[in-house]
Design goal:
This protein is α/β, with parallel strands linked by helices and 144 residues long. Helix content is 41%, strand content 15%.
């Protein structure tokens, strides 16, 4: 496996396709890895279960996280990331359809780096993903 630049945690196939297409079309990243539920996200990030052989030094550099996931919620995934000494500096951007204040407040209380409500319009969604990718992958300076 090559170095994963973005881990996309998304259970909606249409949102997944649009996100990946927008990132690649704008040449923002080479390697996006997609997982579709909370347990798989945690296995990937902590190199457990089906990802036990994955080298933790091979990314990701950014997590794009949906909140409304099957089995384990996005907020639970975020909480585990930010509680881990190895992962707490990993930038996590919530990309969710939820505009609910409790979700937004909970995400920030748990340490999310940014919270973006998915636009319903196809073009606006693609543009939001492009801007997120440009900022977090090209402009932002992460600690080593």
């Amino acid at each position: 496996m090559s170095v994963v630049e973005i881990l996309l945690v998304e259970d909606n196939v249409h949102d997944e396709e649009l996100t990946v297409r927008s990132l690649r079309k704008n040449k923002i990243v080479n390697e996006v890895h997609v997982v579709r539920d909370g347990p798989e996200a945690l296995e990937f990030l902590f190199c457990e279960g089906r990802y036990a052989g994955r080298d933790p030094l091979e990314g990701p550099r950014l997590v794009l996280l949906d909140l409304k996931l099957p089995l384990v919620s996005g907020l639970e995934v975020l909480e585990r990331i930010k509680a881990s000494p190895l992962l707490r500096k990993l930038p996590v951007v919530v990309l969710s359809s939820s505009r609910e204040e409790p979700d937004i407040h909970a995400a920030y209380a748990l340490g999310v780096n940014s919270y973006i409500v998915k636009p319903l319009d196809f073009q606006q969604f693609a543009e939001a993903v492009r801007q997120v990718g440009l900022y977090w992958m090209l402009l932002n300076q992460s600690p080593c």
